[in-house]
């Protein structure tokens, strides 16, 4: 095998290797985006939505107690402890800038609710003041819930985009491999010296 033929073989194999390597790196990035998107949908959106649902249920139960004129301090202490745990769990999720703002508002609303509740037990606040604080906390929870839906949609869109990109690159990779295979065949099989020998 002559030096030119060896160079042709090396170039052909190097082209195929570079194409496969490049598409593999692009596919790896797309799969990383898909994985991160799926993890974010679960860990940061579904878990957060579950926490919001739990807090909302606790606040509605507390509101029902106050509307029924049940000012039990035991129920209040139980609610406050559960709310603190839920707040800590929610803070452990990844928050967007908008989510952080609403979350700060929720924490302030819950703190105000606890203070007004304590004032009601002590006779300093009215039931209407506690119900007003409950309504603010519910509004913050509704806002957080809407953010979860929007962010979940955004993560889903990012995952779909990565899948589409991976599919496109797979199709391009197949086409490029076919073209490269044909080029390698032409490079290897076409030998001007061999043509001259056969014609003589």
What does this structure look like?
It is a single chain. It is rod-shaped, with a radius of gyration of 32 Å. The mean pLDDT is 79. The longest helix has 65 residues. With 200 residues, the chain is mainly α. The protein contains 5 helices and no strands. Helix 1 runs antiparallel to helix 4 and helix 3 runs antiparallel to helix 4.
Which descriptors would you attach to this protein?
single chain, 200 residues, mainly alpha, 5 helices, 90% helix, rod-shaped
Fold blueprint:
Layout: H1 3-67, H2 73-91, H3 97-122, H4 127-189, H5 192-199
Helix pairs in contact: 1-2, 1-4, 2-3, 3-4
Shape label? rod-shaped
Helical/strand content category: mainly alpha
Percent helix, as a range, is over 70%
Distance from first to last alpha carbon: 21 Å
Order of helices and strands: HHHHH
Calculate the mean pLDDT score and round it: 79
Give a brief outline of the structure.
The protein has 200 residues and is an all-alpha fold. The protein has helices at 3-67, 73-91, 97-122, 127-189, 192-199.
